[in-house]
TrEMBL record:
PANTHER family: BURP DOMAIN PROTEIN RD22, BURP DOMAIN PROTEIN USPL1-LIKE
Span list, region Disordered: 62-112
Name used for this protein in its record: BURP domain-containing protein
Organism: Dovyalis caffra
Keywords in alphabetical order: Signal
Stretches with biased composition (Low complexity): 62-82
Keyword Signal: yes
Leader sequence residues: 1-21
Domain BURP residue range list: 145-355
Amino acid sequence: MEFRLPHVLAFLALALVVSHAALPPEVYWNSVLPNTPMPKSIGDLLHPDLVEDKSTSVAVGKGGVNVNSGKGKPGKGTHVSVGGKGVGVNTGKPGKRTEVGVGKGGVSVNTGHKGKPVHVGVSPFIYNYAATENQLHDDPNVALFFLEKDMHPGKMMNLQFTENTNTATFLPRQVADSIPFSSNKLPEIYSEFSVKPGSMEAEVMKDTIKECENPGIKGEEKYCATSLESMIDFSTSTLGKNVQAISTEVENQTQMQKYTIKTGVEMMAGETSVACHKQNYAYAVFYCHATHTTRAYTIPLEGADGTKAKAVAVCHTDTSAWNPKHLAFQVLNVKPGTVPVCHFLPQDHVVWVPK
C-alpha cells in the first residue's frame, strides 16, 4: 500500500511556473521571519533528501520544486520538477512505500519494504480525545505526560523519544491549496493520491481530515496547516512576528530509558503559544492549536546511556474543558482542572512562542 502523487501534480507544477507567484517555503520563512531560526524538525520536511527512508517527498532547492514519489534508485518513482527549464515529469518504478495498518494498538505506519512498524495512534495532544485501554499499555506517548511540580533538576523520568517514521513532507502552498482537503471531497482526494476507498490508507486520511474539521474545545483556536506557509501565517496571526519556533532534539535514538533533568530548564515568554502536531497524511499536515493558558519550556535531559536531549515541554494550566478520559488524566491519576498537566513533545512537533 502506498500514497502516490499521480499526473495531477504535473499540472499543479505547471501552474506554479505560469503563476510566477510561488515562493519556496524557505524563502517565505525568511521573508516573514528573518530573525527566527528554523527548527531541524521543519528543515527535515523541506529537505527529505537529507533524511533516510522517505515516501512521498518534496524538496525545494536551486533547481526549483521537486516532488518525488518513492525513494528508490535515482530516476525511479514519479518525479516532478519545477525550475528554470520548465516542467519535467518522469514516471518509473515506485521506490519505497509507506504502509498504514490499523491494529490492536491503533494505527501503525511502516516506511519502506522492510521497515519496522511504529505505533502512532490517535494524537494524545488533542484535548477532547478519550484514550483507550490499549493506549495505556501500548502507546509510547504515555511516558511523555508529567506534572509541572516534577520539572526540576535531578528528577528522573522513563522516556523514549522515538524517531518519526511518518516522513511525508511539505508541499508548497500553491500545490497544497490546489488539492481538496475536506470530508465532502474524499472521493476526489483518494483519486488524486491513488488511494483505494475503504483501504487502511483511506481511513487514516479520512480520520485526519475529520479531526481537523471537528470544533476545538473552549478557549482553543485550532487550525490544520497543510503547508509550512499556512503554519507560519496562523502562528504569526496569533503571536505576532516576533516569535521563535522550537522543537525537541535528541542526539541518538534510544529505547525506553531513564532520563535525568539537568540544570538549565528555561521557561519561554508569555502564556500564549501555538503547538503544531504532525498528523498522518499523504503529505505534511500539522494540527495546530493556540491556547492562552500554557507555559512552554525547554528542558535539558541526559539519558542513562549518556544520550543528551533538549526537550520541549508544554504545561497546560487549565484542563477543565479536556475530555475526562484523556490519556494524561489516566496516566497521572488527576482530574480535569485540578493541576497543570505537562507533556514533552515528539521530535516532529513544533511550538511557537513569543520571544
